[in-house]
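Narrative of activities, Objective 1.

The group set out to show that a structural description can be obtained from nothing but a protein's sequence at a throughput compatible with the screening campaign. Below is one input-output pair from the validation batch, recorded exactly as produced.
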Amino acid sequence: MRITYCTACSFTARATWVAQELLHTFHDQVGGVLIVPGSGGVFEVALGDDVIFSRAQARRDPLIKELRDAIYERLPGARPRPHGL
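Output recorded for this entry:
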């Protein structure tokens, strides 16, 4: 999993928070999250070569629920965790 974010836009905290949330949910299914500094307003979340969220296309910030749902769809065997876990 990879998160590319714009450093000039102060997206660092957002990128690390998204990484934390996704690792909490998918720690058994992914090998890790690569957080990549970028520029030009970029904020993208990718699973392998598949970009599952692009701020440029959506014209808004991602919702954690939509990122989780998109990853569940792409990871065979991944199941939603009960709330509170």
